[in-house]
Amino acid sequence: MLLEFSVGNYLSFRERKTLNLVASSISDYKETNTITSERHTLLKGAIIYGANASGKSNFIRAMSTMRRIVMSSFHQTSTKTLGIKPFLLSTETEKSPSSFEVLFEILGTRYRYGFEVTDKAVVGEWLYEAKKNVEKFLFLREGDGIEVAPSYKEAENLESKTRDNALFLSVIDQFNGVIAKRIMNWFNKFITISGLTHENYEMVTFKMLDEEKTAKTLGNFYDQLDLGFDGLSIEKEKFNLKRFPEDIPEALVKLMVKDLEGAFRFKIKTLHKKYNKNNKNIGDVEFDMRSQESAGTNKVFNISGPIFDVLQDGGVLVIDELDSSLHPLLTLAITKLFNSEKDNSKNAQLIFTTHDTNLFSYGNYRRDQIYFVEKDEYGVSDLYSLVEYREENGAKVRKDRSFESDYIQGRYGAIPYIGDISKIVEKWQEK
Questions:
Q1: Are residues 297 and 333 in the same domain?
Q2: For a Cys-Cys bond, which of 11, 88, 138, 283 suits 152, CB 3.0-4.6 Å?
Q3: Most confident range, picked from 89-103, 283-297, 391-405
Q4: pLDDT digits (tens, 9 = 90+) for 126-174
Q5: Residue 83: which residues within 8 A CB-CB, separation 6 or more?
Q6: Mean pLDDT within 17-29
Q7: 74 and 211, same domain (yes or no)
Q8: What is the domain-level CATH number for residue 419?
Q9: Which of 313, 348, 367 is the last residue before a domain boundary?
Q10: Do 185 and 219 fall into the same domain?
């Protein structure tokens, strides 16, 4: 389970900013929105608001970038760059490393893992463990040197096998380190997806529909959402070499055949009832999901796989622009899955960005789950939660306030400054 994620000097985040999922002392929705572990009371997720170009997506990219580097570090070549962009609007940071750190819990043990990287190399890396309250280091990397704790036997004599652009953690994992494998498995369940380019995730949905148990769960979910169809028809066929166009180069064909060996192709159809002139049902008509159903229906279908995959196995799901193309009630239905004891028995956590202010009123989110991102005049993004926000008199925001109305009026910041719309229109018309 995730306790904290921190990022610094990356994209629009110049200073270190932290999203904290350790529950504060407030009592709001404690029974439904929190997880009680052996050591902490944790939140089941967080919701992030902010104006366009405020840095919301950059924060999600930071999470995605950390996971990408962890999962791919060992397999890339020594000449491969890391795809890192620091905060470029300051001479003090443009050539400095970016930092990423997570604090998480596995089976009652708390770990703190992070690294500092430039586009070309890892310049710092650390792993700490806390089985009780006291934290002890397992390894510490600074520049070219790696110090391994005497008790951390699985990492012994691996320092020299670590490239400048590779993480020491991934090297330990490749040599079957037990703790390293445990941490890599945690990152494997730390999933980040985009609500805008959701087509990339439909294969996860197809695989879940191909299994009897998860197919029933997804089917029930679609029925509850009333998406306008009465059922699904899925065709599964093996990859066929004859489907390649004849003008594709032979070398490329051979490469693709190797990659697609044993793969399947799925076709998804939605079923709609057909009626005669007396409005009597006379059968079903198949619609092509991609071309004949709405953008919102396609999105729900595509992201339902990752959603229920995380709910089934536990982990962290991060979604950028969850509400894009979705009716507010669909967004609400998805978020409520994670605050349900029945649907979220594995204590999965959901973090997402949105512009849907209805969730302030109907989402039943705690004040420590609601975050805002705001960018200042120097292009620097700030991240803060509603429970941290202070009124002008220094008082905390009360739980009986109208959060939605206050946010729209700019009380908490993190909204676009549009100015006087009538004057803008007048000037445009004059042209």
A1: no
A2: 138
A3: 89-103
A4: 999 999 889 999 999 999 899 999 999 999 999 999 999 999 999 999 9
A5: 65, 68, 119
A6: 94
A7: no
A8: 3.40.50
A9: 313
A10: no
Chain centroid offset of residue 81 CA = 23
Nearest to 338 by CA among 358, 364, 372, 320: 364
Per cent of the chain over pLDDT 70 is 87
Helix H or strand E segment including 2: strand 2-8
Distance CA 151, CA 392 (A): 51
Q: What is the pLDDT of residues 216-247, one digit of tens each?
A: 999 999 999 988 888 888 887 665 555 555 55
Distance CA 4, CA 20 (A): 5
Q: Number of folded domains in the chain?
A: 2
- Residue 321 makes CB contacts below 8 A (sequence gap 6+) with 57, 194, 195, 196, 353, 354
Q: Are residues 22 and 145 in the same domain?
A: yes
In this structure, the answer to whether residues 115 and 233 fall within a common structural domain is no
Q: Could you tell me if 323 and 304 lie in one domain?
A: no
Compute the distance between CA of residue 233 and CA of residue 236 in angstroms, rounded to an integer: 10
One-letter amino acid of 97: P
| Coil, strand or helix at 340 | coil
- Residue 390 is given by DSSP the state B
Same domain, 54 and 163: yes
Q: From the DSSP assignment, how many helices (H) and strands (E) are in the chain?
A: 13, 18
Domain end residue (candidates: 313, 344, 370): 313
> Is residue 275 within 8 Å of residue 254, measured between CB atoms?
no
Residue range of the domain that includes 236: 198-313
CA–CA separation, 111 vs 114, rounded Å? 10
Question: In what side-by-side order are the strands of the sheet with 264-275?
Answer: 231-238, 264-275, 281-288
pTM: 0.88
Comparing 243-257, 269-283, 304-318, 327-341, the range with the smallest average pLDDT is: 243-257
